């Protein structure tokens, strides 16, 4: 992300939402960023970011999902939604199967990244699942409804 954001003075790193997304994702080898409006999220999510974490040896594939929100309460609400939706007993809308069939572990937290509140989920994929699970989920709108029900247009700041 540092290279994409122009480490050392690039323009995107000056946009607080992008800086927060990059910090939240951590060390990734691939990332996709979406405005909250595109992702189908409510008005309290300014930016949705998904990334494949840099592999460590023969370890499992890990991916991160970050929701840069409008305030701490929104981050808390969205973290709760992610916990419920990504629970082992939850269903994956794109496959119909249980999340536990594809996800070995899920950790959801609320944090501050670059001074912005975020909800973050870190997923550990099962060995048979290809990297890019979150990319596919976002593009297929297979994530839970995130954010407030208010769908007003949003400006990324």
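-> sequence recovered:
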């Amino acid at each position: 992300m540092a290279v994409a954001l122009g480490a050392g003075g690039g323009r995107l790193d000056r946009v607080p939402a992008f800086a927060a997304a990059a910090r939240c994702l951590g060390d990734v080898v691939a990332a996709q960023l979406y405005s909250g409006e595109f992702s189908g999220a409510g008005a309290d999510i300014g930016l949705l970011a998904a990334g494949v974490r840099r592999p460590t040896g023969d370890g499992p594939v890990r991916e991160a999902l970050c929701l840069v929100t409008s305030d701490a309460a929104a981050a808390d609400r969205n973290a709760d939604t992610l916990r419920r939706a990504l629970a082992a007993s939850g269903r994956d809308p794109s496959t119909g199967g249980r999340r536990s069939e594809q996800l070995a572990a899920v950790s959801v937290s609320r944090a501050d990244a670059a001074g912005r509140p975020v909800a973050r989920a870190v997923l550990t994929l099962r060995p048979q699942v290809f990297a890019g699970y979150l990319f596919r989920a976002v593009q297929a709108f297979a994530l839970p409804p995130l954010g407030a029900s208010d769908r007003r247009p949003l400006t990324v700041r």
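The domain at 12-139 is CATH 3.30.1360 (Gyrase A; domain 2).
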